[in-house]
Amino acid sequence: MCVPGVRVVWEFEAMSVQALRARLTREDVARLASAQDDEGRALAARKICARISMPGLTQSERQAANAILEVLAGDAAEIVRRALSVTLARSPNLPRDVARKLAADIDSIAVPVIAGSPSLTEDDLTEIVRSGTVIRQLAIAGRAEVPGKVVRELVMRGADPAVQRVIANDGAHFDAGCYALTFERYRDQPAMLEHFVERASLPMEVTEKLINVISEAAVERLVSRHALPPQLAVELAEATRERATVDLVEQAGLSPDPRRFVQQLQMNGRLTPSLILRALFRGHMSFFEHCMAELAGIPHAKAWLLIHDAGPLGLDAVFERSGLPRRILPAVRASVAAYHSLEMGGQGPADVMKFRAALTQRIFTQFQGAPEADLEYCMSRLEADMHAINEDVPAGAARQAG
Predict the structure, then answer these.
(1) CA distances from 26 to 12, 14, 72 (A)
(2) Is residue 223 part of a domain?
(3) From the DSSP assignment, how many helices (H) and strands (E) are in the chain?
(4) Helix H or strand E encompassing 263
(5) What is the C-alpha to C-alpha distance for residues 144 and 127, in angstroms, rounded to an integer?
(6) Does position 389 have pLDDT exceeding 60, yes or no?
(7) 196-243 pLDDT, tens per residue?
(8) DSSP labels for 184-242?
(9) In this structure, what DSSP letter does residue 24 have?
(10) 224 part of a folded domain
């Protein structure tokens, strides 16, 4: 066999592109034209793909390179086409026509391109969802970015395993319509909807809707990972929903709007001295600041300045105005001082847990006058944190750090 387009292979070899490390030899080019040496052509194909992926090609050189890729994509040997697929699966330099051709090939060649190629458009991916097998739908559902149009198609037409994967994929763009379609299709399969809990963030309305349909165990995971609407958090804490309870201290740290959360707690009579002290022990400083601002009737910015005043007068003044019982003031002072004496090592979940553990230990070693129930609560949470740290905090559970 004389490979069609071998002339462009020789043209490509003649290019003068500086700093190219994966240089083809004349032997490589000869292998590309060989009908017998499948493995040799695959090796030469990988070298060509490596050169194509490097910067510096002129327009004419790019055209010649693309012509070679067209030739390789039509090679009779699976090993050659697979070399092209695997090497350029995530390359922006893979022409769309070639990407489409590879995506229509057998699974071993198509799946790497379907799963990662930026050259495939929304329309290409939508077409694959409609006509593809489960393994190809799974490849699309797991892409780093899944456009909303493709998500919609998967939710409407995809096999259950592919829908499950896209539901849990943070890179899949769900809009309100996609959420609604998913709830409609799986209204009788709550176990499928539970996979939304695995996402890093959820709209408040979706979180609230999930509460009513998923299992108790899934609700507990949802509560620990995602901020709830303030009223819903209060209702769950008051056991108005039989299936779930919520730790308001951790919800305080998760809330994207602490001021509103604090106001809601106050309206429901849940902004207790014990809750405030426990949150402070857990390092939820922003929540504590908003509590002081709400109770003292002053702006958050002013409360922040008073709480973090270098001397004791500012904290004492805002505490006095808040109306909180003076018996907990020493514990508050110790907590704020301990918070200032520590530095967060990083922003990862493990870093947060280690900071909380260190904060709790620092408070307990410096001050023993906090209410016994609050101390027991924090000790139990400290033990849970230390266990998680010792287990190296698995990535999936990391979000539970709040």
Answers:
(1) 11, 10, 17
(2) no
(3) 26, 0
(4) helix 258-267
(5) 19
(6) no
(7) 999 988 888 898 889 888 888 888 888 888 888 777 787 777 755 555
(8) HHTTT-HHHHGGGGGSS---HHHHHHHHTTS-HHHHHHHHHHSPPPHHHHHHHHTT-ST
(9) P
(10) no
Q: How far apart are CA 97 and CA 75, in angstroms?
A: 15
- The angle at the Cα of 119, spanning 86 to 62, to the nearest 5 degrees, equals 85
- Both 191 and 307 in a single domain? no
Does 41 lie in the same domain as 2? yes
Structure tokens at 325: 């019982």
Domain boundary (57, 82, 114) is at 114
pTM: 0.66
pLDDT of 90 higher than 70: yes
pLDDT above 90 covers a percentage of the chain that reads: 36
Tally of residues, the chain: 402
Instruction: Determine which of 28-32, 67-71, 250-254, 344-348 has the lowest per-residue pLDDT on average.
Output: 28-32
Distances (CA, A) of 190 to 149, 155, 193, 256: 24, 15, 5, 27
Buried residues in 209-242 as b, exposed as e (16+ CB within 10 A): bbbebbeeebbbbbbbbbbbbbebbbbbbeeebe
206, amino acid identity: V
Q: At what angle do helices 349-366 and 372-390 cross, to 10 degrees?
A: 140
In DSSP terms, 146 is beta-bridged to 172
Express each pLDDT in 250-289 by its tens digit: 888 888 889 999 998 998 888 888 889 888 888 899 999 9
When divided into structural domains, the chain yields a total of 3
- CA 34 to chain CA mean position, Å: 47
As a whole number of angstroms, the distance between CA 310 and CA 314 comes to 8
Q: Are 61 and 15 in contact (CB under 8 A)?
A: yes
Residue that terminates a domain, selected from 114, 148, 167: 114
Q: How confident is the model at residue 83 (pLDDT cuts 50, 70, 90)?
A: confident
Same domain, 197 and 252: no
The answer to whether the beta carbons of residues 255 and 263 sit under 8 Å apart is: no
Indicate if 383 and 240 belong to the same structural domain. Answer: yes
Place of tokens 């379609």: 181
What is the rounded distance in angstroms from the CA atom of residue 279 to the CA atom of residue 286?
A: 10
Which single residue is written with the structure tokens 């462009």?
8
Please write the tens of the pLDDT for every residue from 322-335: 999 988 888 888 88
